[in-house]
Design a protein that fits this description.
The chain is of the alpha/beta class. The protein has two domains: about 150 residues, Glycogen Phosphorylase B (Rossmann fold, 3-Layer(aba) Sandwich); about 180 residues, Glycogen Phosphorylase B (Rossmann fold), CATH 3.40.50.2000. It is about 40% helix and about 15% strand. The longest helix has 15 residues. It is globular, with a radius of gyration of 21 Å. The termini are far apart.
């Protein structure tokens, strides 16, 4: 594999992953790219729903949108995107995304140096392919993405996540909260009862509601429910279980607004999800509830995060829905999470 010399690399394209949590987990690798190529202009190609994660990121110069639902849709959209990228004359593309399509787009763009894992039968499309070893498959995803750079003899720059909330966004957050009667002096606890991919990742909404009521009585904190557009019904259900003694933000905020609100929380209680990684990146104290997914590879990377899980023989199964009795979540009691939450609230 030929070396990548920083003086010869002037324009870099990084192809982002497609999920919010994964996007946040790649930020240490993005910072490392800047460290290795301090003089280069770094652009990032991302789908519209993850692009906001990278707003204000100091290690990125430009964000390009992969509009797969619009002008880049279908068979004609791929060569159109490649053509657009070709005009920008990138010297190097780093494929954080593992799909064949990502490598095909980079190949079609004529980018002379193409770096990524040899997944999805795409080795022939890459000039610098990194072998995905069993150890990397079992590593935390931060190290998984850093492994792409390490395989190309590039240096890392630590494992710290990057997610920048601006002062303007913080002021906007206080205005949002004020509309619900929440002042700057009020404590705020966030709960995130949803998670994409399937119900197996979700602790029970009834338990989230009962836990929230209990914490409200203990601390006097206001409770805010978080979730995406597809979780509106779930948020409404939890809110009704709490007799609406909460603020339901499910599907009512942008990703940037959700991040700023999570930063405002004194505690965030969540399933394994994208918003879990948002909280980790912002160093918001949080409790992360794990069942079907692998806490070794996807745990929140923050000293202020605590995982609650009960080991069972079938976990992690990585299934979207439990085919048995959801014992990995049933065994996590309200009192387990409550006791951990009280400790966080006492210490912070």
């Amino acid at each position: 594999m030929k070396a990548l010399h920083s003086k010869q690399i002037k324009q870099i394209l990084i192809c982002s992953t497609n999920w919010v949590g994964d996007a946040i987990i790649t930020t240490p690798a993005i910072r490392a790219v800047r460290k290795n190529f301090p003089e280069a202009k770094i652009s990032l190609l991302a789908k519209p729903w993850v692009a906001p994660i990278f707003y204000n990121n100091p290690y990125i110069d430009n964000i390009l949108i992969y509009d797969a639902a619009g002008k880049h849709k279908g068979l004609s959209g791929i060569p159109r995107l490649s053509k657009e990228l070709r005009k920008k004359k990138f010297d190097l593309v780093i494929l954080l995304q593992n799909a064949f399509k990502a490598a095909f787009i980079a190949f079609g763009a004529g980018i002379p140096n193409r770096l990524g894992y040899n997944t999805d039968a795409r080795s022939l499309l890459l000039t610098h392919f990194i072998r995905l070893t069993p150890a990397l498959k079992r590593a935390h995803q931060i190290d998984y993405y850093l492994g792409i750079l390490k395989g190309a003899s590039l240096k890392s720059d630590g494992r710290q996540l990057t997610l920048v909330v601006t002062d303007e966004e913080r002021k906007h957050t206080e205005k949002i909260l004020a509309k619900h009667g929440i002042t700057e002096k009020d404590r705020l606890i966030g709960i995130n009862p949803g998670a994409v991919f399937g119900s197996a990742k979700r602790w029970f909404p009834e338990r989230y509601a009962a836990l929230s009521v209990k914490l409200q009585k203990y601390s006097g904190a206001r409770i805010a429910i978080f979730g995406g557009p597809g979780e509106k019904a779930l948020g409404q259900y939890v809110s009704e279980l709490m007799e609406n003694h909460c603020v339901n933000f499910c599907g009512k905020t942008s990703l940037r607004e959700a991040a700023a609100l999570i930063e405002r929380c004194q505690l965030f209680i969540t399933n394994d999800s994208g918003l879990m990684h948002v909280a980790a990146a912002l160093d918001t104290p949080q409790i992360a509830i794990f069942g079907s997914t692998d806490y070794v590879t996807t745990s929140p990377s923050s000293s202020k995060s605590q995982i609650i899980r009960v080991p069972v023989p079938c976990s992690p199964c990585l299934r979207p829905d439990c085919p048995v009795d959801h014992r990995c979540m049933k065994n996590i009691t309200i009192d387990m999470v409550y006791d951990a939450a009280v400790k966080f609230l006492t210490e912070n």
